[in-house]
TrEMBL record:
Superkingdom of origin organism: Bacteria
Ligand binding (Mg(2+)): D484, E493, E494
GO MF term set: ATP binding; magnesium ion binding; phenylalanine-tRNA ligase activity; tRNA binding
Subunit: Tetramer of two alpha and two beta subunits.
Species the sequence originates in: Nesterenkonia jeotgali
Keywords, in A-Z order: Aminoacyl-tRNA synthetase, ATP-binding, Cytoplasm, Ligase, Magnesium, Metal-binding, Nucleotide-binding, Protein biosynthesis, RNA-binding, tRNA-binding
Names of the cofactor(s): Mg(2+)
GO cellular component: phenylalanine-tRNA ligase complex
Residue ranges of the region described as Disordered: 208-227
EC numbers, comma separated: 6.1.1.20
Protein name: Phenylalanine--tRNA ligase beta subunit
Family classification: Belongs to the phenylalanyl-tRNA synthetase beta subunit family. Type 1 subfamily.
């Protein structure tokens, strides 16, 4: 909402010396947000004066254009020129070249003299053109930044003005005025008006306020008043629980001059408020809407066919709106119609058929009160935001309609030569706010401020509420312009706002003595820190996926059926209708975005909950508040909550180390994904079993199944080439995903650093020939079991098949490191442990030492 300062001064005691910044500083105190300042003088500066055309000589040019060589008086007749800027004629008569032709000798025009600056940093100076020295410019409204008309000069006499030459044109046109722009929250629709802002300024400064609505004298109850245009409200079937229109007022004015100029003071205020001047009828309508907050509409009375009916649209009805677009109406649309059909979408936009034009002489002024929900839905349905709908969907004062209609008529009588016909129709009845019971202690309970009873009463009375007593409770009837005040808490907010938010104490709550992080929290933080230390970057993604992504990455085998998942009733986008069952799709999207921006060597990880529905989803009912529902009810609620384990996934692409002169870089592969999973297990002091696995999204033969205590907890390996191509990922992208909750639950109660032994290790190697299809992990597990407790670590360092190895077999070489905690091992003890490992491998797998 933009607030011209000259306008707000009419109804408040805002000082003449006050600036837009001063106004916003006061309004911020009562909860309105400052946005911007609009000041014409920021881009427009003088000398800009009124000039009288003394001579106009047309001069055809060789390019086919005709210019006018003009002599323009820019000082009062008989007065001397007092301006001394270079290019200004001391005689007070300027020679000016002008290309426009819509003015004559004797007209009063706006002249920008040398030294003036126009919008766009256009600086006026004396310059030679078309064979003359043009010392200034006769300006159009567009050149002055006050309109769009660039084809003709601004002739002041056509605005009903006859100022003396030399008059300050900027003052005459209201260009020294400025406007403060504020942001209005959806619950405070009354602030979309000068009336509402003036009231808020009076609250902020404790100064008197003059209600513009109280200055209007209606002719409704005069003896001369008679019934006006026929109106019927036939919206008999409520939609959204309410009727679309509760009050509809018409007031007829006759004999207007549709060509009457809009006076400069009104044009200036409309322009500063963000509206352009159109014609006198539309400008008056907009002016009253901005002043009072009540939208209104003007119909050409001669174009109305019979009485006016407010109803819901019939299916398939069409309406050509004022923007000349044909719109198909919806049965939920509230329309204003006459005998020929719809003539407007109520509260949104009028129809073109009854538009006021240059031939209009009589106008039927409409001011009504419409249901906010109906207006809001129609506005969105037809993509027709308007100043009227902006106000109606936030709530308009139901008592304003007759006053606004009268104000429009009064201004048309004053400015357009019309006559008030006293023909008035007031159909329906206003629906006023209901009383609210306010407990006297509630303001202190909600704000922590001990407001006195007098503060509470005076504040509520200041906003226009009527107070009564209901026992110990206050009975508060909100003012008609505050439809947002419906509950006691809203009244408390008003008390806190107007007494001052600065009165609310700032006290930080004292937290109770804590017990530190839980074991699970400690484990999670340790894993995240360890992954970061290993060179992975943590990312976060949305938990909303497509069903295809959930199915592809969330289940290992392609069953041809989508896996069970939770579908959202109101997804953020139609392509993401389900909650994730895996972390990988979001992580891979983050990887793709990084690679597309030039970061080719990437190692990312993400931890987050996944969602697996149970057989029961949700509950049939929600227990009432205020009482313990009982164990059985809680168990029923819990049964409907999906399982939400924590998963951790990693994705890698590109090189681990960059290529350097003489040092080849190493490309990441599936083994790095397995190592990442092993890193997580190591941080939690658990042991993962890595075996050959299968997964529909992974490369066949480069997929590891990760097991913990014999149960699958994840996969690691290289993505399938088709998946990589479809998702536009780098070649050989590798990933892993683990059920982190399962690993944390199985981790030891105490995790501490392993002691550093003071005894030396003994290392022995073993090379075994086994069947080619035997996974190295199975052979490694057998060696660990056979070696016994002296084995400290085992590492696979060579895999070989080929010459000297029987077909269908391979050689696996392991380094076994032995150490005792209490002594130095002998070679015989280490050899005995190694022999035990080999023996068990021979027994289980038929392994033969190479």
């Amino acid at each position: 909402m933009r607030i011209p300062l000259s306008w707000i001064r009419e109804y408040t005691q805002f000082p003449e010396s006050g600036t837009a910044e001063d106004l916003m500083a006061e309004l911020v105190k009562v909860g309105l947000e400052e946005e911007d300042v609009h000041r014409p003088t920021d881009s427009l500066s003088g000398p800009i004066v009124v000039g009288e055309v003394l001579e106009k000589i047309p001069e055809p040019q060789s390019n086919g254009k005709t210019i006018n060589w003009c002599q323009v008086r820019v000082v009062p007749e008989g007065a001397a020129q007092t301006l001394t800027q270079e290019g200004i004629d001391p005689s007070g008569v300027q020679g000016v070249v002008c290309g426009a032709h819509n003015f004559e000798v004797g007209d009063k025009v706006v002249v920008t003299l040398p030294g003036a600056v126009l919008p766009g940093d256009f600086r006026i100076a004396a310059r030679k053109t078309y064979g003359h020295v043009s010392a200034g410019m006769i300006a159009s409204v567009r050149e002055l930044g006050i309109g769009e008309d660039h084809d003709g000069i601004l002739v002041l006499s056509r605005l009903g003005l006859d100022p003396e030459p030399g008059t300050d044109a900027m003052e005459l046109l209201g260009l020294y005025d400025s406007a403060a722009e504020i942001n209005v929250t959806p619950d405070r629709g009354y602030a979309f008006s000068i009336r509402g802002i003036a009231r808020e300024y009076s609250h902020a400064t404790s100064t008197p306020f003059t209600d513009p609505a109280a200055q209007i004298s209606t002719t409704k109850d005069d003896d001369a008043a008679r019934p006006g245009h026929a109106v019927s409200l036939t919206d008999d079937t409520p939609i959204y629980g309410v009727h679309g229109c509760t009050r509809f007022v018409t007031h007829t004015v006759t004999g207007i001059n549709p060509a009457a100029p809009t006076p400069p003071w009104m044009d200036s205020r409309l322009r500063l408020a963000g509206m352009r001047s159109i014609n006198i009828a539309v400008d008056v309508s907009n002016y009253v809407m901005l002043e009072l907050g009540q939208p209104n509409h003007c119909y050409d009375a001669a174009k109305l066919d019979g009485g006016i009916e407010v109803r819901r649209a019939a299916a398939g009805e069409k309406l050509t709106t004022l923007d000349e677009k044909v719109r198909t109406l919806n049965p939920e649309d509230l329309v204003i119609a006459d005998q020929s059909g719809p003539i407007g979408i109520a509260g949104v936009m009028g129809g073109a058929r009854t538009e006021v034009d240059a031939s209009t002489s009589s106008i039927v002024v409409e001011a009504a009160h419409f249901d906010p929900i109906s207006i809001s839905r129609s506005k969105r349905r037809h993509k027709l935001p308007s100043e009227a709908s902006k106000r109606f969907e936030r709530g308009v004062d139901p008592l304003l309609a007759p006053l606004a209609a009268q104000r429009v008529v009064d201004l048309l009588v004053q400015l357009a030569g019309g006559t008030d016909s006293r023909e008035i129709t007031d159909a329906g009845a206003p629906v006023l706010p209901q009383p609210i019971r306010l407990e006297p202690t509630l303001p202190e309970q909600l704000t922590g401020v001990a407001y006195t009873p007098e503060q509470i009463r005076s504040t509520l009375e200041a906003i226009g509420a009527e107070l009564g007593q209901d026992g110990e409770h206050l009975l508060v009837t909100p003012p008609s312009w505050r439809p947002d005040l419906t509950i006691p808490a809203a009244l408390v907010e008003e008390i806190a706002r107007l007494v001052g938010y600065d009165q609310i104490p700032s006290r930080l709550p004292v937290p109770p003595a804590g017990r530190g992080l839980t074991t699970s929290q400690q484990r999670r933080r340790g894993v995240y820190a360890g992954m970061a230390a290993a060179g992975f970057t943590e990312v976060l993604s949305y938990p909303f996926y497509s069903e295809a992504a959930n199915t592809r990455f969330g289940q290992a085998e392609d069953t041809g059926k989508p896996m069970p998942m939770l579908r959202l009733a109101n997804p953020i986008a139609s392509q993401y209708p389900a909650l994730r069952t895996t972390v990988l799709p979001g992580l891979l999207e983050a990887l793709r975005r990084n690679v597309s921006r030039g970061f080719t060597d990437v190692a990312l990880f993400e931890a987050g909950t996944v969602f697996h529905p149970k057989s029961q989803l949700g509950s049939a009912s929600i227990p009432d508040l205020g009482a313990y529902p009982g164990e059985e009810v809680l168990a029923g609620l819990d049964a409907g909550i999906p399982d939400q384990p924590l998963h951790l996934a990693a994705a890698l692409s590109g090189a681990e180390t960059a290529e350097l002169p003489g040092v080849p870089g190493r490309r990441r592969d599936w083994a790095d994904a397995v190592d990442a999973a092993q890193k997580v297990a190591e941080l939690l002091r658990v042991r993962l079993e890595v075996v050959q696995g299968r997964h529909q999204a992974f490369h066949p033969g480069r997929t590891a199944e990760l097991r913990f205590n014999g149960v699958r907890v994840g996969h690691a390996g290289e993505l399938h080439p088709k998946v990589i191509e479809e998702l536009d990922l780098p070649a050989r992208t590798s990933v892993m995903e683990l059920d982190l909750s399962a690993l944390i639950d199985g981790s030891p109660e105490q995790i501490s650093a392993e002691p550093i032994s003071t005894f030396p290790p003994t290392t022995q190697d073993v090379s075994l020939i086994v069947a080619e299809q035997l996974p190295a992990g199975e052979l490694e597990a057998s060696l660990i079991e056979g070696a016994g407790e002296l084995l400290e670590s085992i590492e696979l360092f060579d895999v070989y098949s080929g010459e000297h190895i029987e077909a269908g077999h391979k050689s696996l070489a392991f380094a076994l490191r032995f150490r005792a905690a209490d002594r130095t091992l002998t070679a015989e003890e280490a050899s005995e442990a190694r022999a035990g490992a080999v023996a068990l491998a021979q027994q289980r797998h038929g392994a033969v030492q190479r």
